[in-house]
Specification:
It contains three helices and four strands; from the N terminus they run H-E-H-E-E-H-E. By secondary structure, the protein is an alpha+beta fold. It has two domains: 7-38; 45-119, 2-Layer Sandwich (Alpha-Beta Plaits), CATH 3.30.70. Strands 2-3-1-4 form a four-stranded antiparallel beta sheet, with helices on one face.
Length: 122
């Protein structure tokens, strides 16, 4: 009579169980991570980096000119107030139309103090 072993009762059954547990943990992590990203919604931002050293007047000019476009919202500055002029100006473009986003990019390209305008890397 031939005895059959179950797959987890082989000579290296402990290894098989450990691989199964690790695989299930990795799969659960991937599902959890993907569900968080899918339910986060639209969080796109456009970043305008200014020529260095930028003055406060240049930052305010970019904010005033382009921050008032329809659908575009300014993201509040973060960090120390004395270092703000070296930080980029951020615009929240979540949920805006393509035409509104094109208008924002056109506005930023017209500003001589803006050296780069593009999506937030992330």
């Amino acid at each position: 009579m031939v005895q059959t072993r179950r797959w987890w009762q082989g000579r290296r059954g402990g290894n098989r169980v450990m691989l199964l547990v690790l695989g299930l943990v990795a799969f659960a992590f991937m599902v959890f991570n993907a569900s968080g990203r899918l339910t986060a919604g639209d969080q796109r931002q456009v970043v305008a980096r200014l020529v260095l050293p930028a003055t406060d007047a240049q930052r305010e000019a970019v904010k005033d000119a382009c921050g008032r476009l329809p659908g575009v919202a300014l993201v509040p500055d973060q960090g120390a107030a004395d270092k703000q002029r070296n930080l980029p100006v951020r615009f929240d473009v979540a949920g805006i139309t393509q035409q509104q986003e094109v208008a924002l990019y056109a506005c930023l390209e017209e500003r001589p103090e803006v050296r780069y305008a593009g999506p937030e890397a992330g």
